[in-house]
Every structure is written in structure tokens, then in C-alpha cells.
Amino acid sequence: MHNNRYMVSIRNELRPTMNYPKRLIEVALPIKRISAHARREKSIRDIHISTLHTWWSSRPLAACRAVVCASLWPDSGDPSCPSRFLEDATKAMQRFWNPLGKIDLDYDNPFEIREALLDFIAEFANWDRSTDPRYLQTARALT
Q1: Within 10 Å of residue 23's Cβ, how many Cβ atoms?
Q2: Which end of the chain is less congested by CB atoms within 10 angstroms, N or C?
Q3: Other Cβ atoms closer than 10 A to 85
Q4: In this structure, what DSSP letter does residue 74 have?
Q5: β-strand pairing of 14-16 with 6-8
Q6: Residue 8 belongs to what H/E stretch?
Q7: Do residues 52 and 40 make contact, with C-beta atoms less than 8 angstroms apart?
Q8: Are the C-beta atoms of residues 60 and 38 closer than 8 Å to each other?
Q9: Element (H or E) spanning 118, and its range?
Q10: How far apart, in whole angstroms, are the C-alpha atoms of residue 80 and residue 78?
């Protein structure tokens, strides 16, 4: 019998298993807010390349941005969340939300970091924010 921390490979070598943290998309997603942005984005007839031709099958970029971010970022409330991501997410959320007046967050609480990340994802889904340098820099730092 093998220790639970190890698994047997095809060649009968022992290799340590890894505990992968859940991703944000597995825990929560602000679907109502993302959907509102996706509906608004669909009705925009601006100078964006996607409005040159109306496709039969729409692909809302708002929903895509949100799903990609939530799929890539670990859940900060998961015990298996890498400490480096938690530290980076805490710093990124402080840099992002504090200038906007959201200073009541407890940055020592990983569950509040999760809520801050989900709020960021919902706001980043907004068409007007898709090219905002602050949002892009924060998303890149977290990814």
C-alpha cells in the first residue's frame, strides 16, 4: 500500500501527486453582472472590428474575458491556493481597489480577496473597461 501523497505511474515509479487549487470559475462567478455587460456589448454599434459584420452566432467578448480570467486564476479561499498567487492577488487588489475608494476590504482574509477578484472580473467584463490600462495591467499581473 502506498502513501496517499504518492501515485504509481505506468512504469511503477513513485511520483508525488499535487493538490491543485480550485479555480474561481469552479467556486463562483458573477453571472448576472457579466450577462448585463454581454447584452450591452451585443447592442453596441461602434467602430469596433466586431461590428463590421453582424454574425449569425454572436460571441460576446465580455463573457469570454470573464470566463478566461476566472478559469486561470486560483480561488484564494482554497487551502491549496499557492501562497505566491495569494500575495500577488492581495497586492493587485489593493493597488486596484484602494484608489477607487474601496478601502474597507480585509486584505488578510482570503475570502474577501476572492470577492475582490470576482468584482474585478465583473467590472472587467464591461465593454468600456476592455482597453482601460488599469484593468489590463491588473489582469496581466494576476495571470
Answers
A1: 15
A2: N
A3: 17
A4: B
A5: antiparallel
A6: strand 6-8
A7: no
A8: yes
A9: helix 110-124
A10: 5
Largest CA distance in the chain: 64
**What grid cell was written down for 58?**
454572436
Size of the chain in residues: 143
Q: What number of other Cβ atoms are within 10 A of residue 113's Cβ?
A: 24
Q: Which pLDDT tens digits describe the chain residue by residue (143 residues)?
A: 444 444 444 555 555 556 789 999 999 999 899 888 877 776 655 555 555 655 555 557 778 889 999 999 999 999 999 999 999 999 999 999 988 888 788 989 999 999 999 999 999 988 888 889 999 999 999 99
